[in-house]
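Supplementary Text 2. Reproducibility record for the structural model of the 133-residue chain.

All settings were left at their defaults, and a single model was retained for analysis rather than an ensemble. We include the record here because the model underlies the residue-level annotations in Supplementary Table 4.
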Amino acid sequence: MKIIPVTCAIILQDGKVLLAQRSESMDLPGKWEFPGGKLEEGEDPESCLIREIKEELAIDIRVTATLTPVEFDYPTKTIRLLPFVAQWIGGEIDLAEHAQYGWYDQNQLFSLDLAPADLPILHELTEKWINLV
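Retained model, structure tokens:
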């Protein structure tokens, strides 16, 4: 099975991280995730993430760090999730695909129903929280 490369953003601001809830029209409706999207042919991961966040959330970000990639097997596909820590640098959030978004502190993150591929990233984020926030 082909592995699909997908980027995701851990956008941090004021000690909180941005998560978005997948809408009913998306795979895994209702699940929360670190927003991002699929790499296009010939696109580098950072450029993909910046483009996807602009398309999905209408904001500009700057990548500041990387976390460990995660390969995850869903029933119909395998993804390689490429997580980047990012800073919000401009624009106002306007959701194009997601149902809602929220800013969560470290203590709130595990109460959300996250997409399965995002869970290892959440664990790494909480382990490194003090160095990233």
